[in-house]
Write a structure and sequence with these properties.
It is built from eight helices and eight strands. It is α+β, with helices and mostly antiparallel strands.
Length: 249
């Protein structure tokens, strides 16, 4: 691994473009995996040489570790800077949906552009105006002003057993068509659901949605974008050993 000798770049000197790179490395590298410059370039829709140049700059600035032939990952300073960028992005998304009445399928790219011109003072005002929201419109948690990501306790819908009930916690897709369709059928953060059954071999899932219990069938591709909090159905819960019978004398 290349050793970073430079002091980390001060937060106020991190440009919007640098923060975009750091935020994307955070998303791609969750779980501690190394992120290749190829994957990073594809995700940001930039050329390979442009990604290499920025990675070198971020590494020299103490925000990335770099391992040849494996990729990059964030240093602690880079991780904090990435989370502050994600915080600003998600706050702007919340503002666009709740105040300016954009659809949740429209706001990702708009927030990308708008956040580049937002100062810390304006970010704080937006946060205050919105009542310090905990999540973005898609249900993802908003990091704190100190760059700390709240703990999550949800899981993909695809691993939930039939009979489980719960709520949609977040939707992990940027594709506008998918987001628009999910909103149409009521599968949005906070919506109640019950998984009725799942067909074998990656077949579709049948759900009951909302208080009315309206049934809806969705494919595995769409289900993979849904994360949920849920309770196991009674038959799936660990058995509780019976209490010992009183001894007779």
């Amino acid at each position: 691994m290349e050793i970073v000798d430079n002091l980390p770049i001060p937060d106020e000197e991190i440009s919007a473009t640098m923060r975009d790179y750091l935020s994307e490395i955070y998303r791609l590298g969750q779980g501690g995996v190394w992120v290749s410059t190829t994957a990073l370039a594809e995700r940001l829709n930039v050329s390979g040489p442009a990604a290499v140049r920025m990675v070198r700059r971020l590494h020299q600035g103490g925000l990335l570790d770099h391992l040849p032939y494996r990729g990059v990952r964030l240093t602690p300073s880079g991780n904090k800077a990435a989370l502050l960028g994600i915080r600003r992005h998600r706050l702007v998304e919340r503002f666009l949906v709740d105040v300016l009445k954009f659809g949740w399928h429209e706001v990702h790219d708009e927030a990308d552009e708008l956040q580049k011109g937002i100062t810390q003072v304006l970010e704080d005002r937006i946060d205050e105006l919105m009542g310090h929201p905990a999540t973005c419109p898609h249900g993802d948690p908003i990091p704190t002003r100190e760059g700390v990501m709240p703990d999550l306790n949800d899981k993909p819908l695809t691993v939930v057993p039939p009979g489980a009930k719960g709520q949609i916690s977040r939707v992990k897709t940027r594709e506008p068509d998918k987001l628009h369709y999910l909103a149409e059928i009521g599968l949005v953060p906070g919506a109640a659901f019950e998984l009725i059954n799942r067909s074998p071999f990656n077949g579709p899932l049948r759900l009951k949605i909302g208080a009315t219990g309206r049934e809806q069938v969705i494919g595995m591709e769409l289900a993979a974008a849904l994360w949920v909090t849920s309770e196991l159905p009674p038959r799936s819960r660990p058995d509780t050993p019976p209490a010992p019978s009183p001894r007779t004398r």
